[in-house]
Specification:
Elements lengths: L7 E7 L16 H15 L4 H7 L1 E2 L2 E8 L8 E10 L4 E9 L5 E9 L2 E2 L11 H12 L1
């Protein structure tokens, strides 16, 4: 892993009324949608979108997730969500941070773990598929 060049992406979102609970605070389960938006941007950077995953013969289900809620977020709040590829050789670990888009204050952090599953055999891969590793290596070589 090249620690000097980190594969990261970010998205800026405005939370909506439908994201909030009756108290006007973003419901905890909606953070996964925010993480998903940032993860999607991250995978697009290496040209391995969900359609490319499927075309390569693999799906990548999430097998573990961790979220640390630091400060509450209300609806109609502009947030910046970053995603960083932390591990990729044997599994996909993506770290996330949610910031207040205006102040830069950290509001939430977390990670997801995903593993490759061969679509044909439905077996979990213990090493990330070469097609994915090649995309990450190509990005690092730029």
């Amino acid at each position: 892993m090249n620690s000097e060049k980190r594969l990261q992406a970010e998205v800026v979102l405005t939370t909506s009324f439908q994201d909030a609970d009756p108290m006007g605070v973003i419901y905890h389960g909606n953070y996964f949608r925010f993480f998903e938006a940032a993860r999607h941007a991250l995978l697009e950077k290496i040209e391995y979108s969900y359609l490319a995953m499927r075309a390569s013969g693999y799906v990548w289900p999430i097998i573990d997730v961790r979220v640390k809620y630091i400060r509450p977020v209300s609806f109609n709040h502009e947030i910046r969500v970053t995603a960083e590829l932390a591990e990729w050789e044997n599994r996909l670990k993506v770290k996330y941070v949610v910031y207040d888009a205006k102040t830069g204050e950290r509001l939430t952090r977390g990670y997801t773990l995903q593993v490759a599953v061969d679509m044909e055999t439905e077996e979990m891969c213990y090493v990330s598929p070469k097609v994915f590793l090649n995309r990450v290596e190509a990005w690092h070589a730029r």
